[in-house]
Amino acid sequence: MLAPVKFRDYYETLGVPRTASVDDIKRAYRKLARKYHPDVSKEAGAEATFKEVGEAYAVLKDPEKREAYDRFGHGMKPGQEFTPPPGWDPGFEPGTRGASPDDMAGFSDFFESLFGRGSGPGRARREPPRGRGEDAHAKVTIDLADAYTGARRALSMRMPAVDDEGNVTMRERTLDVTIPKGIRAGQHLRLKGQGGAGYGGGPAGDLYLEVGFAPDPRFRVDDRDVTIVVPLAPWEAELGAPVRIPTPAGDVELTIPPHSGAGRKLRLRGRGIPADPPGDLYAEVAIALPRAEADAQKDAYRALAKAHAGFDPRR
Q1: Omega before 258 cis (within 30°)?
Q2: Pick from 262, 266, 307: which is nearest to 289 by CA?
Q3: pLDDT for 86-98, tens place per residue?
Q4: Maximum Cα–Cα distance for the chain, whole Å?
Q5: What pTM was computed for the model?
Q6: Which residue of 8, 129, 223, 276 has the smallest Cβ count within 10 Å?
Q7: Which domains does the chain have, with CATH numbers?
Q8: Burial 95-132 (b: 16+ CB within 10 A, else e)
């Protein structure tokens, strides 16, 4: 007789209702896998949660396992003692859409009480089904300049793997990643065959890298457009002047038109993130006021006030 184990609510783990479709379950899994992936998450217990999410997904994505789980877990609550019914054979044979026997090795006692590890008492062990490995998700942070020129990066990340004893462990992997010119924040790079290992001779899954830009206090990015704030002296803003400004692709010379007030945006067409068509670069005017420390500087401000005696900035 199988010993009691603690019941696990796989629907609650993935945050989906019991009526969720396979697509709903897949979306929920991908979202949580990205959130709690040990290579990305800073939360305490992320690795354990990552494994729980993987176990829930292995059951609910497979029709046979989900049907068995729903039938025997009806009315159960998380943490409640659960014992499979008398005569229940834990040697569940996974279908082609289920987890491999090696995958099951790192799962909970509750999982094993229902599904075993691919063979059971009185049942001859079959060859594990051939199946594609799971897709993996991670984030990569690049400099904004990399989106202008493209780059190559060595990316180290921890990914789940199965050791020789069938246990799920996290192993360090280093990948050489090509960052294409024109990449935008939020885009995904697909690295074919770099995800979870297949089973039964099946192909490996893919690795999807979500690209983000490292913070840069000089630039704001909106899709392919880039904005930089350009501080000007009052006389540069009012009289006009040539100034040099930085861009992610290097410094450029910008002509400030006369009467350029604070907040005015000057557009440099095609100087944003490369594409077809490319984005634009916007230089946003800000006025920097020099301090009046010396008597001559204070006299200059008094002369300016006298020359513009009718000016009311609050009107």
Answers
A1: no
A2: 262
A3: 555 544 444 333 4
A4: 103
A5: 0.56
A6: 276
A7: 5-115 (1.10.287.110), 136-213 (2.60.260.20), 219-307 (2.60.260.20)
A8: eeebbbbbbbbbbeebbbbbbbbbbeeeeeeeebbebb
